């Protein structure tokens, strides 16, 4: 996430007043008494690490998404790293990921010791292109240097990737799918929620995410009990269930009781907030659909609307017009990952044409559950006046 957006996320907004990109202030005002009561409980019991709030949150999250197991961890990045570490990858193992995502997706693969293989995305959903991933897997197999092991799919802007197709591709090649759902908690596909759509899922509770805490946080989901046990061990320095013997390499990936208390409180209004995001997204789509390209939502998919993103040819001009009208906007992302210095050596031959094109066209508009109709209409008018 670019620095400007992070600052925006930290600052939050007032319930009334200017249009804000994210709104951290309104839920804080709504839940303040409840959060303070939960924090008081943590102060009283003093179990700042591994307190009862952790298990309570994990149970509530697993029930919400419909997965057998949920594990609370210290960040979305830790969720990805732990999931990858648990599969014992080496640099001879290929993990396929879309080029158009946040750098954490690629960083996690490299931190876990595997080799990232970038895949192009679909120009309309902005998610991983199924035909191109199949082509990339075939290329890797033909070259014979790397073994295709995992797919790290990303649900960009909250829209689930095509999990039916990804699960099929993974099965065909004996691979596993890790969903990077940092932006999509609350989304769904084919009647099941994000967190229950594939082998394993990682999400983020960064403050501006659909479910955000008041610091860093994340969670992991799976139905596989032995995988969940490996994750639990890695999260706690690679120790056994008694936390005495080191049985594998691990990290400190715990989420503390104070953050779990915030999330338990925020979960009480999360379904209502998700409905509001959907309503707001539909109002945007109806009003903007003919003027600019809006993200395509395939039948059967439900975005979590972590971000609302349009595509325009004249992005700089549109952004300037929005700024003049007092409408904040942000670009996710200015470059495809293979165009960054840190990942350039993994750039596919011929680049990733769709990722590169999107990087010049995407623009995210204000999106949070507390936008009023009047504010949405002001954003729409500003976009239409420039596009
Ligand atoms: C797609 C994606 N993956 C991973 C992450 C990392 O999450 P965190 O900041 O909680 O480590 C983010 C955060 O912005 C993200 O957008």
Spans of at least 5 consecutive residues with low confidence: 1-16
Which strand order does the major sheet show? 1-9-8-5-4-2-3
CATH class of the largest domain: Alpha Beta
Helix count, DSSP H or I runs of 4 or more residues: 13
Protein topology:
Elements: H1 3-11, H2 25-45, H3 52-65, E1 69-73, H4 76-85, E2 93-98, H5 103-111, E3 115-119, H6 130-143, E4 147-154, H7 163-173, E5 176-180, E6 188-189, E7 192-193, E8 200-204, E9 218-222, H8 225-235, H9 257-267, H10 270-288, E10 293-294, E11 301-302, E12 308-311, H11 315-324, H12 353-359, E13 362-365, H13 373-386
Parallel strand pairs: 2-3, 2-4, 4-5, 5-8
Antiparallel strand pairs: 1-9, 6-7, 6-11, 8-9, 10-12, 12-13
Helix pairs in contact: 2-9, 3-9, 4-5, 10-13, 11-13
The structure holds pyridoxal-5'-phosphate.
Describe this structure in words.
With 387 residues, the protein is α/β, with parallel strands linked by helices. The chain folds into 2 domains: 30-267, Type I PLP-dependent aspartate aminotransferase-like (Major domain) (Aspartate Aminotransferase, domain 2, 3-Layer(aba) Sandwich); 269-386, Alpha-Beta Complex (Aspartate Aminotransferase, domain 1), CATH 3.90.1150.10. Helices cover 41% and strands 14% of the residues. The protein has helices at 3-11, 25-45, 52-65, 76-85, 103-111, 130-143, 163-173, 225-235, 257-267, 270-288, 315-324, 353-359, 373-386, and strands spanning 69-73, 93-98, 115-119, 147-154, 176-180, 188-189, 192-193, 200-204, 218-222, 293-294, 301-302, 308-311, 362-365. The protein has a 7-stranded mixed β-sheet, sandwiched between helices. It has a 3-stranded antiparallel β-sheet with strand order 7-6-11, with no helix packed on it. Strand 2 (93-98), helix 5 and strand 3 (115-119) form a beta-alpha-beta unit. Helix 10 runs parallel beside helix 13 (373-386). The two termini are 25 Å apart. The model is unreliable at 1-16 (pLDDT under 50). The structure holds pyridoxal-5'-phosphate. Pyridoxal-5'-phosphate (PLP) binds next to helix 4 and helix 5. The site of pyridoxal-5'-phosphate has 16 residues, from helix 4 and helix 5.
